[in-house]
Amino acid sequence: MDSVTQAALGAAIGGAILGRRLGRKAILIGAVVATLPDLDVVLDYGDAVANITEHRGFSHSLFVLTGLATLMALLCARFAPARDISLRRWWSFFALILITHPLLDALTTYGTQLFWPLDLPPVAWPIIFIIDPLYTLPLLIALGIALVSKRVPKACAWGLAISSVYLVMAAGAKTLVEQRLAPVLAEQGLNEAPLLVQPSPFNIVLWRATVIDGDRYYESLISVFDGDHEPQLEPLIRNAEFEEIAMAGQQGQRLDWFAGPFLRYETRPLNGEETLIATDIRLGFPGYHPFSFTLATFNEGAWQLVDTSQAVDNPRDIRIETLARLAARAKGDNAALCASDFVAPEWIAEGTFNRC
Q: Any stretches that span the bilayer, and where are they (predicted)?
């Protein structure tokens, strides 16, 4: 999640636990401590793939953060002026603030390495977009009330309760969408295919489904307000024939560990060389995927793996009219937006341009 949301969540937890004793200081401390796990963004591993896949790694590990919470609690119990606060209370304060950070991150598509240093893929059960105002606003409003009224614990508790209900609603919406999608997948023989269902940007009403089927993948937009409208799968191309080349290198293997089969491949001239590029199709929106990486270049009749991967920027920016169409589709207007509307024509399977 974004830094503002994480800080607001930590501040609300801090105010709920120690607001009665520390007042507004509990909110401030909570906000600062909650941002600590994201300090790993300043680390540069010297490789674009490493930078993206190492983020939310050791600094988001439940093992590391539990240890850090214990250390901070011991220091505060020993040196803090508030001598009447027990070690157990300090530990609850720091542990909940720190651990809820990666747990919330794990509810986004990007996922989180909760069990680092164990060599396990990031944990992800996406029910919320990385920025969702309707989740963040209750926390910010509650913090504002707490700061003005001085009723810190009660206001913070209400903010946490409302934001938690929102997450429950998100989980329910995802379950509903998955149930609507299941018969469509079964009808097309895709019920065992790798599937990702995630919320579209900034809401939990409109959901995006991505299904992998060899050289093809399918995209679909499904709103909780679609009624009897059957989800439509729009076929796109992965260029899976380049997968073997990509997986021959360390960066390609790392991307596979990070994103699984949700990768798309392309070749195009870059800096004067024909370059193999892998794109993580989980993140962003079709046509607006932000994470693409160079993996190999074609020289002397053969593909040569790069020593250091580079990030390839997506030149397209999201416009207001795009967000307006997204909002209309969320309301159940099936003609407002298709999943492949912003995808370049060469990626659409068989050159079809059928409306969803």
A: 26-46, 58-79, 91-111, 123-148, 155-173
